[in-house]
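Appendix C: a fully annotated inverse folding record. The material below is reproduced so that readers can follow the format used throughout the book. The structure is listed first as tokens, followed by the designed sequence.
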């Protein structure tokens, strides 16, 4: 008797894992339109009857950070925190553009009548955009807890030790956010100081930096549009022709890039 009770007590304790969305199955009738891109293959075959345009638009709005904030944001996502991460990425991208503005780049600008070639501008923009995206995606994981909250508050049916489990999760979230804000403050101070020094030393290069930054933003947007097209085509073909591999490829690109 005591053994069974002990097992029940163990089952009541929620194992906090922020990387478990793929383990949760939601009934067809409970799926929202904003969740269709995340459902498994067999479920998609049954209920995903969107046309090409709706699939493309849905994926694109999820891939562009600022648009995702307003169109497909989870009700359990803290808007101020998410917007904070987005602004941090912008500052990091700008700082990297300045950091990559080496003496060789300055020399090229000097020998090219004060202008940089499009190849150099494009290269600097791409590199800074890739690095900032990778770094922010890593640090932003510390703020990504909306899914686990939604899973508990909406889909948990057995309420044994519900309050205790929520308390444990909140404690875990506080630790993660403390680490996030500590790292963010340190990096913001360092980046602000670096930008101040850069603008003081390279006073006449600010126009080039602004151009690099704009090119980087447009390149990132173009990349998102192209990736969205690939994901959408793979998903449409996988559902139409019942191709499991194409569907998994589409889903992998959607979740990882």
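Designed amino acids, in order:
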């Amino acid at each position: 008797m005591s053994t069974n009770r002990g097992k029940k007590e163990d089952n009541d304790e929620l194992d906090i894992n922020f990387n478990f969305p793929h383990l949760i199955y939601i009934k067809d009738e409970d799926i929202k339109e904003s969740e269709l891109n995340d459902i498994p293959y067999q479920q998609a075959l049954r209920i995903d009857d969107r046309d090409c345009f709706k699939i493309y638009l849905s994926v694109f709005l999820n891939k562009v950070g600022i648009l995702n904030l307003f169109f497909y944001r989870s009700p359990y996502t803290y808007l101020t925190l998410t917007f904070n991460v987005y602004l941090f990425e912008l500052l990091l991208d700008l700082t990297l553009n300045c950091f990559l503005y080496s003496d060789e780049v300055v020399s090229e600008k000097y020998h090219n009548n004060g202008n940089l070639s499009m190849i150099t501008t494009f290269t600097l923009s791409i590199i800074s955009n890739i690095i900032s995206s990778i770094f922010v995606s890593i640090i932003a994981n510390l703020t990504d807890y909306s899914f686990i909250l939604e899973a508990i508050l909406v889909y948990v049916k057995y309420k044994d030790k519900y309050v205790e489990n929520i308390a444990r999760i909140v404690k875990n979230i506080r630790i993660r956010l403390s680490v996030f804000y500590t790292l963010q403050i340190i990096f913001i101070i360092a980046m602000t100081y670096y930008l101040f020094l850069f603008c003081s030393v390279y006073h006449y290069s600010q126009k080039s930096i602004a151009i690099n930054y704009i090119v980087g933003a447009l390149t990132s947007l173009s990349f998102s549009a192209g990736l969205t097209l690939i994901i959408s085509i793979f998903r449409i073909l996988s559902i139409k022709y019942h191709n499991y591999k194409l569907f998994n490829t589409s889903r992998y690109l959607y979740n990882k890039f």
